[in-house]
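Case study: Fibronectin type III-like domain-containing protein.
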Amino acid sequence: TGDRKSLRLYENDEKLILAVASVNENCIVVLEGGGPIIVEPWKNKVSAIIMSWYSGMEGGTALGEILFGDINPSAKLPAVFPKSDDQLPYFDAITTQIEYGYYHGYKLMDKEGYEPAFPFGFGLSYTTFSYDNLRINKKSMNFDGEIQVSIDISNTGNMAGEEIVQMYVGYKNSSVDRPFKDLKGFDKILLTPGEMKTLNLKLRAEDLAYYDVDKKEWVIEKIGYIIYVGPSSRKEDLLTTTFNIS
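Here is what the predicted structure looks like once written out:
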């Protein structure tokens, strides 16, 4: 944020959290803010963390319904929560001119090999889900083609819930500097306890293009691609399969 030197909470806030957590094992921290907050100094001392963002005049109602289990949360983080400020690009709050690099967020984490506190796309629920049998309907497509990506999602817990399934794509031997993976699709699925459904996502060849600044046009590379599907951007959470553009 532009008005702060660190994304940590203020020192007194962190001391309060640690003090409460030391005498109450059921301590839940609700964060309200417009962006990532560093929680590393105390995250393992509390039972749960809820990122409330700026939830508006009905935010209190929504928070109460989540805390008391009236509804099952299904949200996912739209940003990386880093472990420390050192995992972020350099920031100068008072400069009038600065140049930033190409990589930010989960793409920077992938490039530098950083492990964040919470990855992009992360979010817990009162139930659990399993991902199985990732498959595609073809192993090769042309420049105007489309692939159907299918995955079996099961509710392995005891409460009905919604899961946001995320699809990323990586690039084998690209001729240009590209991220380890890019988010290319997502969808939400509702499952009752014990239920399994197949979710289908579409991936078009044009979704894989990059912009060539010299040619001033979008380019689709004839290379191999890796599809990643899972509940977050974290590598360990993702199933993979591959295909080619020919």
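For the exam, be able to explain this: The CA atoms of residues 117 and 141 lie 37 Å apart.
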